[in-house]
Amino acid sequence: MERIRPDYRIILEVVTEGSSVLDLGCGDGELLSLLAKIKGTKGQGIEIDQKAIAECVRRGVNVLHGDLDEGLSEYPDKSFHYVILNGSLSEVRHPRKVISEALRVGEKVVVGFPNFCHLGARLQISLLGRVPINRSLPFQWYDTPNLHFLSLKDFILFCRQEGLKVLSVFHFWGYHRVYFFPNLFADYSIFLITGLQG
């Protein structure tokens, strides 16, 4: 059996059997395909890259061409059990708006992003004087899709300021889960959040 990416493995843990899922920035559709096969979900993807859309179609994944920054006006409130923003939050122009729209159309939102403040990144900046390049941030400064650079603490503060409820958090470095000092040692995190606290 193929080795499942650590972020996908976490999302497979989080998403409940038979639920409806909207994947924002679904890429090649691998995650939606795995969710359908393993958890029996009904999925829909939104992707802007035409080559990735073609791969989604090849996998049999239901996908629409769209720009996340333009909103999700075609979807009614709470039309999905889960909305997934895995790796796409740092790539959109207006992350606050995208999260707000995701929370509107989904009961719960899964947000996954690389931690720009983990130890390896800090060392590359302080010792080498270079923008970090590593497993979770594999791009040169001139071809990175990332527009926003955030740490775990930044996202926790954002959730607090916006009145969002964090239901669970998962941190890891490569294939290993991180339980202590995650802002320092985790290179990727996944948050399960829900809307405004009552």
Question: Descriptors for this entry?
Answer:
single chain, 198 residues, alpha/beta, Rossmann fold, eight-stranded mixed β-sheet, 7 helices, 8 strands, 33% helix, globular
Provide a compact summary of the structure.
The protein is an alpha/beta fold and 198 residues long.
What does the model show?
This protein is of the alpha/beta class. The protein has an eight-stranded mixed sheet, with helices on both faces. It has a single domain (6-115, 150-196), classed as Vaccinia Virus protein VP39 (Rossmann fold). Helix content is 33%, strand content 26%. The protein starts with 5 loop residues before the first helix and ends with a strand. The protein is globular and about 45 Å long.
Estimated helix fraction: 25-40%
Helix and strand content put the structural class at alpha/beta
Q: Judging by the overall fold, what is the CATH architecture?
A: 3-Layer(aba) Sandwich
- CATH class type: Alpha Beta
The number of helical elements comes to: 7
How many structurally independent domains?
Answer: 1
Low-confidence stretches: none
Per the CATH scheme, the topology name is Rossmann fold
Radius of gyration, in angstroms, nearest whole number: 16 Å
Query: What is the H/E string?
Result: HEHEHEEHEHHEEHE
Can you tell me the overall shape? globular
Report the average pLDDT across residues.
Answer: 86
- Count of individual beta strands: 8
Instruction: Please give the order of strands in the largest beta sheet.
Output: 3-2-1-4-5-8-6-7
> What profile does the largest beta sheet have?
8 strands, mixed
CATH 4th-level superfamily = Vaccinia Virus protein VP39
